[in-house]
Amino acid sequence: xxxxxxxxxxxxxxxxxxxxxxxxxxxxxxxxxxxxxxxxxxxxxxxxxxxxxxxxxxxxxxxxxxxxxxxxxxxxxxxxxxxxxxxxxxxxxxxxxxxxxxxxxxxxxxxxxxxxxxxxxxxxxxxxxxxxxxxxxxxxxxxxxxxxxxxxxxxxxxxxxxxxxxxxx
Length: 169
Hints:
mainly alpha
């Protein structure tokens, strides 16, 4: 409900009302509601229009899926920081990019376990630095970040392959 109330995610107030009407069904308190009854509660005396009702239900379903994806994305703080780096690629945001890179680098350096996810994150970390340096033209012909990214991509790939082989065995 909070997600639907946010105008950032949802601008259709009808979806909030529909969600409120469907909440007892979602929580298992009611078994089922008829489409025509829901329509009447939403639109009053306006004649029932099946296509419009289905579109409204589809929109609510899409928002539910986006909410689940957002919650899953939000749980992985490292992934959030990596996506933030994409947004900080602008030259005017150099200070913020550098601060975020430093923070991510410190987090990665503190990791004791160098598993496949570590190498995946390290790949993205190095690759983002390379892209930023290439875009800002701070250091020309410096491919050290790209070489490190390539190394971590190989480590990630090999460790994932080993995991899959172990699972098969």
